[in-house]
Amino acid sequence: METTLRGVGVSHGVAIGEVRHMGTAVLEPPAKQIPADEAEREQGRARKAVEAVAADLTARGNLAGGEAQAVLEAQAMMAQDPELMADVDRRIAVGSTAERAVYDAFAAYRELLAAAGEYLAGRVADLDDVRNRIVARLLGVPMPGVPDSDEPYVLVARDLAPADTALLDPTLVLGFVTEEGGPTSHSAILARALGVPAVVALPGAGELAEGTVIAVDGSTGEIFVNPSEEKKEQLAAAAAERKAALAASTGPGATADGHKVPLLANIGGPADVPAAVEAGAEGVGLFRTEFLFLDDNKNAPSEEKQVEAYRQVLEAFPEGRVVVRVLDAGADKPLDFLTPADEPNPALGVRGLRTLLDHPEVLRTQLTALAKAAEGLPVYLEVMAPMVADRADAKAFADACREAGLRAKFGAMVEIPSAALRARSILQEVEFLSLGTNDLAQYTFAADRQVGAVSRLQDPWQPALLDLVALSAEAAKAEGKSCGVCGEAASDPLLACVLTGLGVTSLSMGAASIPYVRATLAKYTLAQCERAAAAARAADSAEEARNAAQAVLSGE
Ligand code: PEP
Ligand code: MG
């Protein structure tokens, strides 16, 4: 019998196929004692397994490229953490087997991190994944992870570690569904980068029986279990219609009546540029430069290395627009050499611009590298700061840009409600705003973006979030300046129309979403978008807002 489940759609498209579950977690190795004369051999075994896992993660990273590569390399470094290895050696020296020592050492490390409040759920999932890989290798059992299958399937998992999402083969993995994870978690961002339909935060996903046929609608978040032939045909027809509309829609982003809304790409580094160009991005709306820093958690990348990476991106968009965000370290993206280790609430602590103002040398190097990279290029460079709270923050950033001799527009991200509420005051210091709706939702609703249980509050359709978007866009208009959106909200085609109606001037998203947003925007006039925006703001919940906007746009 057909049943319908609802999670959060995070990556567009429809996938119909059989459920395959992610390789089960590694069992707890037995706590048996080994004789003292075996310790050295066990230590050798542990070291070899760690090295092999680190090499495997690095190789997967090289294969995946882009944002995924940085995440996988960070995991490879986690595996080889010298303190962790020393703990493994110590445990073996007092009688543990290699697998048990690895298991216990990682558990101790995990507890330490959790107690320090230092790592958020996403990082703990990465750590567990590294441990499972090492223990599986030592036990000689299959690696946990993506199932071995020659037939296409829908992957179902509790949560997906970056190592797995990076390796998903779009020709075999038709789509994926996870029980955990919010719409702005790393897994969701990586899924969009891959262009695989995905639904996250689906309670009970783990109970879907292996081999059951399901249809995943990554746009609506619906899962149809045992879909009828009629439902399959209906979904396939809708998908075909969408595909045809996508193919027919090309060129710059605009509404049906020609109101221009540049469609830009979110990238993590030069490796993401080809997909952005192919999707017809009119430039880059968010270059997340922190991925350049994740390679080496102990030092900032040299000025030369930064110049090279920035130049590669700038050269790809001659005469186009590239918005570079300076380093956004801290909270879910901690860097050992910058992020305080003892904060009780890292998301509310020293992160983003706050980190850079505490380490002006890091900001100076980055701005100087950007100035050098842009030298002689016809590109239209914009540089923005993450986590700007008030006018003083905006001024400090603009001053640093001027001191570095940067010839670019300076902007502020609106990720903290105070910045939206006082956008006009911030605009006295900078030339543009860019709404980071992922963090803006997190801080507006006091809902951690990594926690699936609060994903309802991370829904960018929440009318309170739309109010803050409207405030920011109105302030920018009054000041004669621009206000884009670069958070994940921009990748939802219907919401993109509403954002346009709220007065947002550009939309930046993962490359795979650009064709969907372009095609949908082209169907409606600016006046229709404005009416949809007003209807959404008049609603009392995210769901009502979505339905109200849909009703206006479909002329109901
Ligand atoms: C955001 O917060 O919306 C944003 C674009 O920044 P990030 O997702 O990198 O925190
Ligand atoms: Mg952010």
Unreliable segments of 5+ consecutive residues: none
- Cα separation of the termini: 31 Å
| pLDDT averaged over residues | 89
Characterize the overall form. globular
Q: What's the count of strands?
A: 16
The domain tally reads 3
Provide a count of the helices.
Answer: 22
Percent in strands: 5-15%
Strand order of the largest sheet: 1-8-7-3-4-5-6-2
CATH class of the largest domain: Alpha Beta
Helix and strand composition category: alpha/beta
Bound ligands, each once: phosphoenolpyruvate, magnesium ion
Which sheet architecture does the biggest sheet show?
8 strands, mixed
CATH architecture of the largest domain: Alpha-Beta Barrel
Rounded to an integer, what's the Rg over CA atoms? 24 Å
Q: Mind telling me the CATH superfamily name of the largest domain? A: Phosphoenolpyruvate-binding domains
| Helical fraction | 40-55%
Per the CATH scheme, the topology name of the largest domain is TIM Barrel
Task: Write up this protein.
It is an enzyme of class 2 (transferase). It is found in: Cytoplasm. Belongs to the PEP-utilizing enzyme family. This protein has 556 residues and is of the alpha/beta class. The protein has three domains: 3-23 and 145-229, Phosphohistidine domain (Glucose Oxidase, domain 1, 3-Layer(bba) Sandwich), CATH 3.50.30.10; 36-139, PtsI, HPr-binding domain (Enzyme I, Chain A, domain 2, Orthogonal Bundle); 253-554, TIM Barrel (Alpha-Beta Barrel). 46% of the residues lie in helices and 14% in strands. It is built from 22 helices and 16 strands. It has helices at residues 39-64, 66-79, 82-93, 98-116, 121-139, 162-167, 186-194, 229-248, 273-278, 290-293, 303-316, 353-358, 360-374, 391-403, 417-421, 423-426, 437-445, 463-478, 493-501, 514-521, 526-537, 542-553; strands spanning 3-6, 8-11, 14-21, 153-157, 173-178, 198-200, 213-217, 222-225, 263-267, 283-288, 321-325, 380-385, 409-414, 432-435, 482-485, 506-509. The strands form two sheets. Strands 1-8-7-3-4-5-6-2 form an eight-stranded mixed β-sheet. Strand 7 (213-217) and strand 8 (222-225) form a beta hairpin. The longest helix is centred in the N-terminal third of the chain and has 26 residues, at 39-64. It is globular. The model has no long low-confidence stretch (mean pLDDT 89). The structure holds phosphoenolpyruvate and magnesium ion. Residues 386, 415, 436, 438-439 line the site of magnesium ion. The site of phosphoenolpyruvate has 10 residues, from strand 10 and helix 17.
